[in-house]
Amino acid sequence: MSFSFNGIDHIQLEAPKGHEEKARSFYSGVLGLEEIPKPENLRKHGGCWFLCGPQEIHIGSLESFKAPQKAHPALVVTGLQSLRSHLEDASYAIDEEEPIAGRDRFFVKDPFGNRIEFLEYHAL
Questions:
Q1: For residue 60, what are the domain limits?
Q2: What is the three-class DSSP state of 83?
Q3: N or C: which end of the chain has fewer CB within 10 A?
Q4: Can you tell me the mean pLDDT for 33-44?
Q5: SS3 helix, strand, coil % of the chain, rounded to 5?
Q6: Cβ(83)–Cβ(94) under 8 Å?
Q7: For residue 74, with 0-12 CB atoms within 10 Å meaning exposed, 13-18 middle and 19 or more buried, which class applies?
Q8: What is the Cα–Cα distance from 111 to 52, expressed in whole angstroms?
Q9: In total, how many domains does the chain have?
């Protein structure tokens, strides 16, 4: 092949139109991600963007929003148990699924029902 993939630039999640402050409260306030400005020409569409390591999480604003049931981003974390305690203290329900060899993980739903997986790799 004459092409290769170099990573992921961003993921896009959706939220109901007009709920940017709720997104900021969760992604910046609870998770501590840095909000970054959207390009000027895209601001009219609503939503907000956050840094997650070198990648970005874009929260798009959608008039007829419905949270996906299975689709989700998986965010790699250092200090997974500390994050788990932090989220539990903030009253977010932790969802467990089948383990995967070499990693610990759990899921949380954001304020809009988007599933987010948090995982931490460890030696086998």
A1: 10-121
A2: helix
A3: N
A4: 97
A5: 20, 35, 45
A6: no
A7: middle
A8: 18
A9: 1
